[in-house]
Amino acid sequence: MARTFDLKTEAQVWAKQIESEMDRGIFMSRAEAENTTLGQLLDRYQREITTQKRGATMERSHLRMIGQDPVAHGFISGITGKELTAYKNRRLREVSASTLNRELNILSHVFTVAAQEWHIHLPWGNPVRLVSRPRVDDKRDRRLQGDEYARLMSAAATYGGEIGPLITWAIETAMRRGEIAAMRWDHLDGPSGPQCRQARVLLIPETKTGTPRRIPLSTTALAVLDGLPRRLDGRVFGVHTGSISRAFAEVCKAAGITGLTFHDLRHEATSRLFEKGLNPMQVAAITGHKTLQMLKRYTHLRAEDLVGMLG
């Protein structure tokens, strides 16, 4: 095996290390790691691993962002905790701590697969384990306030398309953005088409937690279905997750509403379910939360709304 160095001393150190490992019978070839860039490794991972995942679209987006960073140009044999710490610091100037942690999780799996499945010897092991993670404080308690709902729906009507029905549906069902985008007419119990008021239950076959669930539909949710055309591809809404967020951001801007995200509608919906008098088990059956602690994070009850329940 051969390798090129800028300095003679570096070459001598490397040669002695290789000779020592050979003498002790623990030598493992670094050739593939020394000739494969992280960018090339990410491409292979996307082709062979990402395509098999349910969240492939989102993971491809993260892989693309990692691949655009200078760290992707380096050979994987030389990527250590130092290089990834520099990557972390660069990314934190552009993205949130939670987004960075998702990228690091993906990177960690990329290196694990490289070592365990593709048998590429990594001199430093999994370098992601050598990087400290930023603290994430993404707890949100944002709910619709005052006349924000009316302003939001008015702006949505002007914006056009499906964003208005999407907003109403999210508030009525507490469904996640990805779950809404994946809805199909054949996921409804009963006749699956427009004017389907017999369909009072919706099946969500693929969820973030991996557990399918069936949720009851309110009369307002049914009215949303009544107003939608039957698409030839069988989907209820003709939008994808990214376009939902972009349209919602535009509507909020037009309505003069700040600090509200589409995901906050899940907080709003969950809180409203409690305000209707449902107990935690009933709410969890609808929202899909696995633990009471997770359900609590999405529940933000207003004292003013609880007064009438006290008698």
Give a short overview:
The chain is mainly α and 311 residues long. The chain has 15 helices and two strands. The protein has a two-stranded antiparallel sheet.
List keywords for this structure.
311 residues, mainly alpha, DNA polymerase, domain 1, hpI Integrase, Chain A
Task: Describe, in plain words, how this protein is organized in 3D.
There is one protein chain. By secondary structure, the protein is mostly helical. The chain folds into 2 domains: 123 residues, DNA polymerase, domain 1, CATH 1.10.150; 155 residues, Orthogonal Bundle (hpI Integrase, Chain A), CATH 1.10.443. 52% of the residues lie in helices and 3% in strands. The protein is built from 15 helices and 2 strands. It has a two-stranded antiparallel sheet. A hairpin with an 8-residue loop joins strand 1 and strand 2. The chain is elongated. It starts with 7 loop residues before the first helix and ends with a helix. About 2% of the residues have low confidence.
Task: State the CATH superfamily name of the largest domain.
Answer: Intergrase catalytic core
**Structural class assignment:** mainly alpha
User: Which topology of the largest domain does CATH recognise?
Assistant: hpI Integrase, Chain A
Low-confidence stretches: 191-196
Q: CATH class of the largest domain, please?
A: Mainly Alpha
Helix content: 40-55%
First and last CA, distance: 82 Å
Rg calc = 25 Å
Query: What is the count of structural domains?
Result: 2
Strand content: under 5%
Strand arrangement, largest sheet?
1-2
- Mind telling me which CATH architecture of the largest domain this is? Orthogonal Bundle
Shape: elongated
Mean pLDDT across every amino acid position: 82
